[in-house]
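Batch job 17 of 40 flagged for manual review because the log was empty.
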Amino acid sequence: MEIRVLKYFVTVAEIGNITKAANSMHLTQPTLSRQLQELEKELGQKLFVRGAKNITLTPEGLVLKKRADEILTLVEKTENEFSSIKDEIAGDIYIGSGETKSIKLVADVMKQLNKTYPKIKFHIVSGDSEDLSEKLEKGLLDFCIFIEPYIPEKYNYVNLGEKDVWGLLLRKDDPLAKKKDINIDDLMDLPILISRQAIKKSFERNAILEWFKDKYEKLNIAGTYNLIYNAAIMTEHKIGYALGLDRLIADTIDSPLTFRPLTPKLEVGISIAWKKNQILSKPAKLFLEVLQNNLKK
C-alpha cells in the first residue's frame, strides 16, 4: 500500500466524485479509477459504492479513511520533523486540548515563539481526553492539555498552575440566573447536559461525581456533549442546562446565556502532557522550554 495511493483514496473519499478528484490532482479519470480498483484488490475489500454521479464509502472504506487520515498526518509530521533538523528552527507543533481557558497560557508561548521563529507553525486539535490521549499515543500529537479527571501517570506532564471552575450555563431570563451560585438541590429537577468525559467512572478520581455523591444517580440527564459550544446552543434553545467550566462561553450583552458557579466550589486542575521517552522535535523542545520558563515567573 503506497502513500501516494492513500492520498488518492482520501481525496476521492472527501470529494465524492472520481472525475472532480482526478482533476484536482491533475490525473486522468481512468488512471485514478485504476489505482482505486487496485487498492480494493490489494485489500480484498470493496471500498466505494459507485453511483451515477457520486461515490460513497462502504463500512470498510470508512475504516480505511480513518486509518489513512492518521497515516498521512503522521507522514507529514515526520517529514516536517526531519526538515526541522537543519540549523534553522522551523516546523510544526501539534497540541491537543480540551476546552479550557488555560489555552491562553499556550497562546502566550505561541506568540513569543512566533516573534523569533516565524517558521514554527502551531496546530490545535480539540477533543476530550480519551480521543486526545489516543492521538498522543499514536504520535499524531506532540502535547495534550488535559483537564481533570485524567490519568497523568502514564505521561510526562507539567501542571499549568491554573484551575477551572465548574458551574451551570443557563439562559439570562431563567429564574435561577438571579442566584449568585448553584447548589445540588437547584439541579435535581433540571434537565442537565453534561460532558461525557466528566461522568466517566473509569477514572480513579472523578471530581464531578464526588461532588454529587449519591445524588448523581437521581439527576435528570437530558443529554451529553464533548464540546461546550454545542451544549450552549442546546441550552439557548431550552433543551437543558449545561454543566461545564467557567469562561468558555462569553457572558456578553448580546448572549442570551450566563454562567453561575457551583457551591460548594468545584475546581479542576489543568496539565500539559507528552509521551514518556518521546523524542521531541526542535520546535517542540523549544515550546516546552519557553512554557516552563513562563510558569516559573
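Reviewer: the log was empty due to a logging misconfiguration, but the result itself is present. The chain is about 40% helix and 25% strand. Unflagging and moving on to job 18.
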